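Tokens in:
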């Protein structure tokens, strides 16, 4: 099932998400649907708030971002109730975008490495270290769980220049090849 992507301006993108309940039986189906939704929109990551669910879940597939020559080939993974334990290493800048904020990109500075604890879709616990682009995708999606968007890191004139584009997105003024859900107009 392909979900519509929630657009910038929807309150669910600004809420701190709640842990996903362990007694839920539909987790594997939800994860499969999130991957399907992400691929349909040509994304490399998708967090549950982006499909209107305020739960601490995200999926990534960073294998699409790495070339075969690179030592880090990326990962395809679901992260349930994740907790970043540490972020470290050199900070580096990279131009990020977001399925909820189409056609908007901005330079974001993040640490190059992280250690994260999470559960997979079968509730197996994991604690792993990630770096480079995979760490960046994880940090971006993790931010969604805390109600933070990549545009929050953009400052000054660049932020002012984005303002009208962000307002336009919240009003449905976008042209994308995937379904989106826009904030309800009052």
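Residues out:
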């Amino acid at each position: 099932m392909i979900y519509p992507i929630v657009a910038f301006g929807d309150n669910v993108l600004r809420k701190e998400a709640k842990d996903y309940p362990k007694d839920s039986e539909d987790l594997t189906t939800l994860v499969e649907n999130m991957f399907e939704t992400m691929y349909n929109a040509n994304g490399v990551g998708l967090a549950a708030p982006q499909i209107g669910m305020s739960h601490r879940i995200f999926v990534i597939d960073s294998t699409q971002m790495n070339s075969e020559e690179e030592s880090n080939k990326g990962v395809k993974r679901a992260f349930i109730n994740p907790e970043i334990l540490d972020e470290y290493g050199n900070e580096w800048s990279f131009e990020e975008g977001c399925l909820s904020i189409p056609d908007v990109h901005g330079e974001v500075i993040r640490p190059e490495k992280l250690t994260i604890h999470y559960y997979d879709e079968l509730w197996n616990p994991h604690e792993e270290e990630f770096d480079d682009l995979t760490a960046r995708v994880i940090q971006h999606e993790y931010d969604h769980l805390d109600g933070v968007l990549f545009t929050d890191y953009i400052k000054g004139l660049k932020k002012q220049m984005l303002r009208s584009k962000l307002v336009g997105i919240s009003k449905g003024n976008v042209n994308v090849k995937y379904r989106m859900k826009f904030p309800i107009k009052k």
